[in-house]
Amino acid sequence: MACALIFWLLLFTALATPSQGKRLGPTPHLRYSRFLDPSNAVFLRWDFDFEAEVITFELQVRTAGWVGLGVTNRYSRAGSDLVVGGVLPDGNVYFSDQHLVDEDTLEEDGSQDAELQGLTEDAVYTTMRFSRPFRSCDPHDQDITSDTVRVLAAYGLDDTPKMDRERTFVKPIFLLQIIHPDDLDAPKDTIIHDLEITDFLIPEDDTTYACTFLPLPIVSKKHHIYKFEPKLVQHNETIVHHILVYACGNASTLPTGISDCYGADPAFSLCSQVIVGWAVGGTSYQFPDDVGISIGTPLDPQWIRLEIHYSNFHNLPGLYDSTGIRVYYTAHLRKYDMGVLQLGVFTFPIHFIPPGAESFMSYGLCKTEKFEEMNGAPVPDIQVFGYLLHTHLAGRALQAVQYRNGTQLHVICKDDAYDFNLQETRDLPYRAVIKPGDELLIECRYQTLDRDSLTFGGPSTINEMCLTFFFYYPRNNISSCQGYPDIIYVAHELGQEVSDSMEGMMALSNVEWTPESINKAEKACKEAQQTVIIKTIDELVENTTGWIRDINPPPRGPCLESSGGKVEPQDKTPAGFRAAPVVLSGSSSAPLRCLPLAALLFGQGALSWLLATVQAGI
């Protein structure tokens, strides 16, 4: 009786669907969206439940054939996961969790970990909606993490899933964006102000750092800047590498005009406290509702230095640019004044990365014990709410680690799949608290297999950087805290006899770079004493020293057992797995005995809908 009831319930649901394909239950609004291809034929929506560790995707493609969505890695399509689905001409749907055996060959996973929520086709689009765990117990499924994720989308013109490179797209996306802009307040009294250079002739050089000094908005009482976004000229978007806005101390004497930031006139490098920053791939950013950048009080900066990094690799002539940062501010005050703290490796002249390295780590230490003395007043706990990670082209991963009393507390932020073309300000899922005396360590991982000479720290895109910017409150006067290793010690460990830092850097060119010498250099950089340079908004500088501590990687959480397929014994990782959260109400086991038949007749998505229906007690 129970099986018959379930059969007619599912049959009625299938027949009641007016369009071709299947819609399984309600479809809640998905907050995030992005086009995945240049012609805007492939559109992705998504949302996630951070606590349940489940993400939902909806892929809409301009095709009447099959569609696929998954995750890939930086180096090869082989091993990518891909959820494939479509609607046959007779209206039946197909849906499968698969992976790429090589660049072109699809194979179905032994464990089906994607749950279908809807698959429809109309005169223009095929739309597939499904959910999956952040981390399944299937080794063929790539994890969804707080790193940059390389989203893979593919489709065909018919219902035979076959990879076609012209219809395959990869886009780096930060999927687990905690705060959506629609969740934040937009004050009604918002005022817009542009900090920009106008009609600047971009030099034909590979790298240009253009700086100018501009006043902040003049207001009669305190206001808060609560949002910023890049202001870019359309045809110059690919040439602008980054834009930084530095607050100037009110005692500074500033030059006029536009000049090279780090050239002959040192005045154009004045002002070192970043207040907002944008880099290639980023978009607008709005601060949380309780923080803002204070302007309009005697303690607030009145002028800023606008720094724009141009990368004109093709040496194009005659390009004029009007680029900058647009800020949004309001008289509706927030609870806290915010600041930005720059951390990482002191860029020049000590930083280096050997050529031909599969992996090379650099470390920059910050010790906060001098913050109060340099701030000129007690420094309250630093509450970090957001961050921006920055390297150049050789960068592959970054992380920021916090230590207290010699013990690692946690990794504040990281990106193990860093992408130079996606540098954006990101929110933390919690407020990280930095107390006086804590140590902060920035680790950057590089790869230089395509280089045959040393890469040095520097401003050019082909040079390197290792930086992290913490967005925090309440504001203090510390602008940066960066470290670098004792290069004399490093050179000695590499067999070079040197007596000062300049000789040490020059001696690196004498080293024969092999996997062994690369490993020795990395080990020496980590073991060497670090010099820590701390700077304030008023250009006060003090040094201290410290040592690099070991980093304990956070353990991976348990994987989620599939609710729609068999978990093979070899799929269970050492971290263990947890059962899918399905609890059936009542004591009768009749619905469970009918599930295989329901899945066979109506598909896995219907089975999932049935489980939810039984759970609700219907």
UniProtKB/TrEMBL annotation:
BP term (GO), one: octopamine biosynthetic process
Region of interest: Disordered: 552-571
Range of residues in the leader sequence: 1-21
Record keywords: Copper, Disulfide bond, Glycoprotein, Metal-binding, Monooxygenase, Oxidoreductase, Signal
One Gene Ontology molecular-function label: dopamine beta-monooxygenase activity
Residue span, DOMON domain: 40-156
Top-level division of the source organism's lineage: Eukaryota
Cofactor(s) essential for the protein: Cu(2+)
Gene Ontology cellular component list: extracellular space; secretory granule membrane
InterPro entries reported for this sequence: Cu2_ascorb_mOase-like_C, Cu2_ascorb_mOase_N, Cu2_ascorb_mOase_N_sf, Cu2_monoox_C, DBH-like, DOH_DOMON, DOMON_domain, PHM/PNGase_F_dom_sf
Family: Belongs to the copper type II ascorbate-dependent monooxygenase family.
Protein name in the entry: DOMON domain-containing protein
Species this chain originates from: Muntiacus reevesi (Reeves' muntjac)
